[in-house]
Specification:
The complex is a heterodimer. Chain A is α/β, with parallel strands linked by helices. Chain A folds into two domains: 158 residues, 3-Layer(aba) Sandwich (D-Maltodextrin-Binding Protein, domain 2); 164 residues, D-Maltodextrin-Binding Protein, domain 2, CATH 3.40.190.10. In chain A, the strands form three sheets. In chain A, strands 1, 2, 3, 6, 11 and 12 form a six-stranded mixed sheet that branches. Chain A has a four-stranded mixed sheet with strand order 8-10-7-9. In chain A, strands 4-5 form a two-stranded antiparallel sheet. The longest helix of chain A is centred in the middle third of the chain and has 15 residues. Chain A is globular and about 65 Å long. Chain A starts with a helix and ends with a helix. By secondary structure, chain B is an all-alpha fold. Chain B folds into two domains: 235 residues, MetI-like fold, CATH 1.10.3720.10; 202 residues, MetI-like (MetI-like fold), CATH 1.10.3720. Chain B contains 22 helices and two strands. Chain B has a two-stranded antiparallel ribbon. In chain B, helix 7 runs antiparallel to helix 8, helix 8 runs antiparallel to helix 12 and helix 14 crosses helix 19. The longest helix of chain B is centred in the middle third of the chain and has 42 residues. Chain B is globular and about 70 Å long. The chains are: A alpha/beta, B mainly alpha. At the A-B interface, helix 1, strand 2, helix 3 and helix 9 of A face helix 2, helix 14, helix 21 and helix 22 of B. Chain A: Keywords: Signal. Chain A: It comes from Idiomarina baltica OS145. Chain A: This is ABC-type uncharacterized transport system, periplasmic component. Chain A: InterPro entries: SBP, YnjB.
Chain lengths: 361, 524
């Protein structure tokens, strides 16, 4: 028994920081956001520190996949005040009518960079329900001596894989880097067909995607581990790329080619290439669920995240390095990649299901 | 009367209530979608889970039967068993992955060879890597359990008889001791098997994903939001129970076959006249000591490196400030982890001691499977049922209760042998000298059993620290712990940061075990 008391005393002596504050209790904002990237997590920690004087306690709830929260929101059991979403997750929440209209009220529209076509999220009108936070562009990281040039077409990739079997792979769909890898191949194979901007039901999806499956059947045995296993995440693939087990790793952040070298995650001499002629480009957004217990505080957080200072800090290449959505100049950041429009949201589930039916699970 | 109330209360709290909730939940669960669809989607995972579990359990079983004969693992070894799985897996992965430390050493020694390894055997994600991690982690547990049981058998007397009849030591071990031992380690073996069927955090880090293990597949399906996946989740957890039952049946059959075969060998009367070697395996403890130390060093180096790319043997850059920078974020998690572990370990420990005392008074010395029931059901199925009843973020009470449910059977199992071996005449004598029942218990029994008592508490503590699924599904927002954070960071791929959290987790458990051992060391 005395050991129990000993331990209890030990804990109480350690004296952990308590959250008591002089200006009364800070309002908590439960921010559900993907927690798989330490640089992003560090940025949110910084934001939490900056927001504390405003009486807001920003709490990052790290999720492996934001779909987890979408499900809870649709089921009506979630304490989320603020969520980080785009694409199919936004689509599902919009359909279920779970999001609060905020964009007009926050009055930031005119400060946003309209060239980013943020008004449409995977072909779905934003409709006042979410605020753009940053920009994603899909491309591959590779080493200087691996792939030549600044882009690689689907056909060239297959050639490369045939010459270097086991050096190429992609995260397993439905991981979004993996699904976007498939989309990029589709664009490259179809020579930028505009049909992918339309819903799956509106076009002949089977015919449009047939070249992809033929292509993948050829590519699959040339992949890492003969296509019998896949990285679970882009981060995992990144580690293997950094340690010379693979020749490419996917990224959705055009500046990551710089930030990852700065962070010591990949060796110097890493460069970026687009898969196909252009990079699939989309925005990622912040939204407030209708069920939020602290909507006012959550709006304050969004206003802060969209401030010039916060956006500059977010684009800082020593940290996250996520491109800004504001119409401001950031001299040191690498140029954006050539833009390819994101597919309509319905393709996400379609491609994932088709892929899962064809390849090992 | 009181003894019955104690048993009923413990059974209600830690068995009937948690199981009842799940059963009630499963009657209301919607099994949408056809069974055939679910089977097609999950059968690959189910077969893989079955194969991994069976192979792991059999290797662990035969490993333990073979190795339990060797040098006795000291109590210090118990602390190795308590290395949290997640910390162990993170460290092991760095050691054996195709661009890991071992391969780098080979690369440095063989300049002709161009690494890194392309093999899929010890790849960072494969069924094989998963099995290596599980076997290395589970084997010491079963060896300890086996050795504890061998101690309770009159092995020496049997051995003298066998030697007089001309049996070699090895033959004696396999023909006489093993048949008796097999029955006694059945339960721990089943616990290992069920753990393997339903473990989620380790496969998330090192397991295959095409297909994934069944528990991991269901875990991931459970956060998809379209309606047909919910049916799939329910079918999946049903399938998980089925896999668990089939595995146990197969293990039982293996035991039966083994018993028959060994007894037919014994009946043949064959013996090797040559005196065998002593059978001491002094190397065994050293293997695990070495492994633990290397994994610890790996984690430590990882936690302070800035860049360390293949094929460097040593970090190319350092970042000592990482620990300081992370500390403000580790501290609240440490606090959460410790509060939860101390409370649930104490509850579990008190329940286990009360139950054992009641059983000892009634002279029920058998280890009853019923009390270990919660370890015989796949954890995922249980936690899923609780989550659907009390919601995805229910606060500390539900979480504490869920941890205690899993800590209690381990505390009971750990303490059972020592408690029932305790000669109770000491208590009677104390009573005859005028001590009250409580005084006798505290002044006579506790000092004599202080080490097993302390170790049982430490074991319960370590079980709580290592819990992933209950914490992740019942209170991820209000009560994140070191384990949930370590898994989240490690699956994000930053080993440096992941190692910091893994070490904090390991240290928590290690400190408690060291305190338990040091505080109860024998004087003179």
């Amino acid at each position: 028994m005395k050991y129990v008391f000993l331990l209890l005393t030990a804990i109480s002596i350690m004296g952990f920081p308590t959250n008591s504050s002089a200006q009364g209790k800070p309002k908590p904002v439960y921010f559900y956001a993907w927690g798989g990237n330490p640089a992003v997590n560090d940025y949110i920690r910084w934001a939490a520190k900056e927001l504390r004087p405003q009486g807001i306690q920003l709490q990052h709830v790290k999720v492996a996949d934001i779909a987890e929260v979408v499900k809870q929101l649709v089921d009506g059991q979630s304490n989320a005040d603020l969520i980080w979403i785009n694409g199919e997750n936004f689509h599902a929440l919009k359909q279920a009518d779970r999001l609060m209209p905020i964009l007009t009220e926050l009055n930031i529209k005119e400060r946003l960079n309209d060239q980013l076509s943020w008004q449409s999220d995977f072909g779905e009108p934003v409709a006042d329900l979410e605020v753009p936070w940053g920009v994603g562009q899909f491309y591959l990281l590779t080493c200087n001596t691996c792939v030549a040039g600044d882009h690689i077409s689907a056909a060239e990739l297959l050639e490369y894989a045939a010459e270097h079997p086991g050096r190429i792979t992609y995260p397993k769909p439905p991981e979004f880097h993996g699904t976007t890898f498939l989309k990029s191949l589709l664009l490259s194979l179809s020579e930028q067909d505009e049909a992918f901007l339309k819903p799956v039901d509106a076009v002949d999806a089977e015919k449009l995607t047939a070249p992809l499956w033929t292509y993948l059947d050829e590519l699959q045995p040339l992949l890492w581990q003969g296509g019998e296993n896949y990285p679970s995440s882009a981060a995992q693939q990144l580690n293997w790329f950094a340690n010379k087990q693979l020749d490419v790793a996917p990224s959705f952040n055009p500046n990551e080619v710089k930030t990852l070298v700065n962070q010591g995650r990949v060796p110097a001499g890493t460069k970026r290439i687009t898969l196909g002629d252009a990079a699939i480009t989309n925005s990622h957004y912040l939204a407030i669920p209708k069920s939020s217990g602290h909507p006012q505080a959550a709006k304050q957080v969004i206003t802060f995240f969209l401030s010039e200072a916060a956006q500059r800090k977010k684009a800082d290449l020593s940290g996250w390095g996520d491109p800004t959505v504001l119409d401001i100049a950031l001299p040191d950041t690498p140029a954006m990649l050539p833009v390819a429009a994101e597919f309509h949201v319905s393709w996400q589930a379609y491609l994932e299901q088709q892929w899962q039916q064809r390849y090992p699970r | 009367m009181i003894s019955r109330m104690v048993r009923v209360a413990i059974a209600l709290l830690w068995l009937i209530l948690p199981l009842g909730v799940v059963l009630w939940q499963s009657t209301t669960a919607s099994f949408e979608g056809a069974l055939s669809d679910a089977f097609r989607a999950l059968s690959g995972s189910a077969w893989l889970t079955f194969a991994v579990t069976l192979i792991t359990s059999l290797i662990v079983l035969f490993g333990a039967l073979g190795l339990a004969r060797g040098k006795r693992l000291s109590a210090t070894w118990t602390s190795f068993i308590a290395v949290p799985h997640v910390a162990f897996a993170i460290g092991l992965l760095w050691l054996v992955s195709p661009s890991g430390w071992l391969v780098r050493i080979v690369d440095a020694l063989l300049p002709m060879w161009q690494g890194p390894l392309q093999s899929s055997w010890l790849s960072s994600k494969s069924a094989f890597t998963l099995m290596v991690a599980l076997v290395l982690k589970e084997l010491p547990f079963l060896i300890l359990m086996a050795q504890a049981n061998v101690q309770q058998m009159p092995v020496l007397r049997w051995q003298q008889q066998a030697q007089a009849l001309g049996y070699s030591r090895r033959r004696f071990w396999w023909l006489i001791v093993v048949p008796a031992l097999l029955r006694r380690i059945r339960l721990p073996l089943y616990i290992i098997a069920i753990y393997t069927v339903s473990v989620v955090d380790i496969p998330l880090l090192v397991g295959p994903n095409a297909p994934a293990l069944l528990a991991q597949a269901v875990f991931e399906l459970n956060w998809q939001f379209n309606s047909n996946t919910q049916g799939l989740v329910h079918w999946g957890s049903l399938l998980l129970v089925l896999v668990a039952i089939v595995t146990l049946v197969v293990l039982r059959v293996v035991e039966w076959v083994l018993q028959r075969w060994l007894s037919s060998l014994a009946a043949s009367g064959k013996r090797t006249p040559v005196a065998q070697t002593t059978g001491k395996r002094a190397g065994l403890p050293w293997f695990w000591a070495g492994l633990a130390v290397i994994i610890f060093i790996s984690l430590l180096l990882q936690s302070v490196q800035q860049s360390w790319f293949y094929p460097s043997l040593w970090p190319q850059g350092w970042q000592w400030s990482r620990w300081l920078a992370e500390w403000p974020y580790i501290a609240p998690l440490l606090y959460n982890t410790w509060i939860l572990a101390v409370l649930s370990a104490t509850l579990a420990w008190l329940s286990a001691v009360a139950l054992l005392e009641v059983q000892a008074q009634r002279q029920q010395h058998q280890l009853h499977v019923g009390w270990l029931a919660m370890l015989m059901v796949p954890q995922l199925v249980l936690v899923l049922g609780w989550q659907q009843t009390i919601g995805p973020d229910s606060g500390l009470i539900g979480l504490l209760w869920s941890h205690t449910v899993f800590c209690f059977p381990y505390a009971y199992l750990t303490l059972h042998g020592a408690y029932h071996a305790y000669p109770r005449r000491w208590l009677w004598q104390a009573r005859s000298l005028g001590y009250g029942p409580w005084a006798a218990w505290f002044k006579i029994l506790v000092p004599m059993l202080k080490r097993p008592l302390a170790l049982a508490w430490a074991m319960a503590f370590s079980i709580s620290v290592a819990q992933y699924l209950p914490t992740q599904w019942l209170a991820p927002v209000t009560h994140p712990t070191l384990t949930t954070e370590a898994v989240s960071i490690a699956s994000g791929g930053d080993w440096r940061l992941g190692s910091v959290y893994a070490l904090a987790q390991w240290a928590s458990v290690w400190i408690v075990f060291m305190l338990a051992l040091w505080g109860t060391r024998a004087r003179n």
